[in-house]
Input
Amino acid sequence: MDKAVIDIIRDKEKIPDSVPDSEIAREYKGTYTAARAAVSLDHTPIDQQLANAMAKIFPFMRKKK
Output
């Protein structure tokens, strides 16, 4: 498992730095969480893609920041 994927899992799952990368890789190998982390490296999340598309279609629905 790539270090970048492990870092994303560590961040999303709030795993402390004291847990070694090898243990995270062994525990999360082949899981949905690992797959989502790997996909998020190369792509924007589906929720963000949907929000961007809706903003183009319905500009009045954009969130005010």
Notes: The chain is about 65% helix and 0% strand. The chain has a mean pLDDT of 82. Residues 3-61 form one domain.
